[in-house]
Amino acid sequence: MVVEALRCNSTGSRASKEQGSTGCQVLIDARRESDPVDERAIIARCLAGERRAYSVLVERYKVLVHDLVSRMLGDTSDAEDIAQDAFVKAYLSLRDFRGESRFSTWVCRIALNRCKDVLRKRRRAPWTRLRHEEGPDVAEVPDDQETVVDSLERCEREARLQRALARLPVKYREAVVLRHIEGMDFHEIGRVLAIAAGAAKVRAFRGREMLRRILERDGAAR
Amino acid sequence: MATRRCVGIAALVVMAFGVPFVSQASAQEPVKPGELSRTLEAANLSPEGKALLRAKGIEVVRAGVAEGEVAGLIQRGVARGIQPAELVSLLDVVARAKRQDLPVGPVLDKVKEGLAKRVPAVRIAGVASRLSGELATSRDLVRRAERDGIRVEAAGERQRATEAVADALGKGVPPEEMEKLSRQVARSGARATMSRLEVGTQVTADLVSMGLSPREASETVGAALVRGLSRRDIEGLRERLGQAMKRGESAEAGATQLREDIRSERPEKADKLEKMEKPEKMEKPEKPPKVERPGR
Amino acid sequence: MTRFEELLEGKLAAELSPDEHQEFSALLVVAENRRAFATHQQTVALLAGVERYVPSSSFTEEVLARLPDRRSRPLRNVCDLLWATRVMRWNVATALALSLVLVVTALTWKALSGRTPVGSERHSIVTLFRFSLDAPGAQQVSLAGDFNGWQPDEILLADVTGRGHFAVTLSLKPGRYAYMFVVDGATWMTDPRAEAYRDDGFGNKNALVNVEVPTVADGDT
């Protein structure tokens, strides 16, 4: 499972760098275009007993939540379970969702709270992260556009970045991940984290500074 | 009309006096009279074996252990093929713990665990007895902690703290170190609560599980308690030590660094910008789904 | 945050007004500011280029499988019946008598609930906790621990996807629980992903889970 993290993906489909960027962009656009009225209608159907209607929301935001959880916890081994937990909890508390923000904001907040619980209690994370030190799986060559060397380099780069992210204090890590990986604007980040947009900017800024210092130290140590 | 009214009033009066009796019946533990007898009747044992267990079972119930628990233990033991004499020794351990006014739940759980894992009865009795001893030591320690000023703020805190201290003692943390931790909590003014003692001892035991010596573990937690770290930050010591070990440091070196960090840490100040801006109106913060059920 | 830092953040987010843009450009004259800007740009580019961690293809199905059924139609009818608005006629005497009943019940309950027999719980709030184990090839995985009296065949985990990933969600009252998995009814296995561990005294290692009392605020003692 941790080797999956070095493959830079879990069990889902593999994308090249260009497709990854495009995929991310498509995801952001889908979120921006997700109509709050449409989401309220789906939620109303769920509350009326149409359980399958919830799959629309899950499908829409599963990559966002799963990636967010993976980044916050530093590995993918528990990420799928915890991401599922977040969606289940969101479903169980649908009655409390007032529809004033996007459903993604709601479920991301739940996911982050769950991550924080896990990080507080977890003892195994350091051992899981240690396995990032192993070499990436050479057998996994995603497509013709990327050579084995490129793949190795990219995996190593991303593993280093993930290790550095894991060393950030939680409040900076969540701001950096939400802003620069999940592509949220500061107003939305503020709603997810229940802070002002300005405070979210400060955290993202400080987080990036700290991240850069960690990466430089890490690079110097090699 | 008058008759109807009288009947109505009479009915209400009967309800008013009848309800307490119903409450009394339901507020008590759901004891099924004769559960012990039924269990023994159904058991595949000799008459002598049944008599032996009946006598011991009654004795344990009279000591204050729930009949359902006693019957359950006997049922599990018999199903596992444990001889009546051995079952008696297990019940003895439970009864002794109850008579000493110890929290019997952990002792019962340990016996059930041993039975489920098919451990020989003699070994179960030994482990459960040792646990009882640790609970007794811990109970005394917790009582002293209360006398020293540590407050119990909610139901069950004393018992949980007793169990946590017993767990730490079981991990090899000496009673003297636990006393020291307890004094550190007691001296923390408004934060001198039993729940802090509980979390402090739990984390101490966890640090020992991670490879730290008991003394180092209690010193590290002690430093956090003296510094006034919150419950969350005390629990976070596990992760911080884990991160240090992941960086290649030994547990001891990691703990030493951790203590230095704790002693030199300042409470984190919010950036000026964070303080100045008021939070926007938000959705209600997410809470885990709560299912309220009446307690047993 | 300094003014330059605020403008830098706005620049990275492409949210500067023309005036702010000019102000920012003026500040870039300072070499240190230029270096800082370049560094932040590099970090942003690094972060933006990462691959997303994509969940498995059965993710949505697994979530749906874990959702409880909302009320079924017959039950909804019962609820409607119970909660439908009704008009009641009453008088003061009846109201007083009912109040007396409630008060007496409350006092009696309070007096009697002080007796707590061994083995009973006081907490009335539960938290959902999910246990999972990867055991490809196993026919059955169950969970035994303090929360169920160590019964080895009571709580069965489900392999929803058929790929050997067994899971179950339990409602647990606050407390610390020791547990182990039991594979195929005979093999006791320690959870490799637990938050903490303890020797059980019998030569095995129990996993531990700590369920805290849910709180609204972050503050604590």
Secondary-structure map:
The complex is a heterotrimer of chains A (222), B (296) and C (221).
Chain A: H1 2-6, H2 17-33, H3 36-47, H4 54-73, H5 79-92, H6 103-121, H7 125-130, H8 148-167, H9 170-181, H10 186-193, H11 197-221
Chain B: H1 2-27, H2 35-42, H3 47-63, H4 67-79, H5 84-99, H6 104-116, H7 121-147, H8 157-170, H9 175-186, H10 194-209, H11 214-227, H12 231-246, H13 251-264, H14 272-276
Helix pairs in contact in B: 2-3, 2-4, 3-4, 3-5, 4-6, 5-6, 5-7, 6-7, 7-8, 7-9, 8-10, 9-10, 9-11, 10-11, 10-12, 11-13, 12-13
Chain C: H1 3-12, H2 18-27, H3 31-48, H4 59-66, H5 73-83, H6 92-112, E1 127-134, E2 141-145, E3 155-156, E4 165-172, E5 175-183, E6 187-189, E7 196-199, E8 205-211
Antiparallel strand pairs in C: 1-4, 2-3, 2-5, 5-6, 5-8, 7-8
Explain this structure.
The complex is a heterotrimer of chains A (222), B (296) and C (221). Chain A is mostly helical. Helices cover 71% and strands 0% of the residues of chain A. Chain A has one domain: Orthogonal Bundle (Rna Polymerase Sigma Factor, Chain: A). The two termini of chain A are 26 Å apart. Helix content of chain B is 71%, strand content 0%. Chain B starts with a helix and ends in a 20-residue tail after the last helix. In chain C, the strands form 2 sheets. In chain C, strands 2, 3, 5, 6, 7 and 8 form a 6-stranded antiparallel sheet that branches. A two-stranded antiparallel sheet of chain C has the order 1-4. Among the domains of chain C are: 46 residues, no CATH class; 85 residues, Immunoglobulins (Immunoglobulin-like). Chain C has 6 helices and 8 strands. In chain C, β7 and β8 form a beta hairpin. The chains are: A mainly alpha (222), B mainly alpha (296), C alpha+beta (221). Chains in contact: A-B, A-C, B-C. Chains A and B meet through α6, α7 and α11 of A and α12 of B.
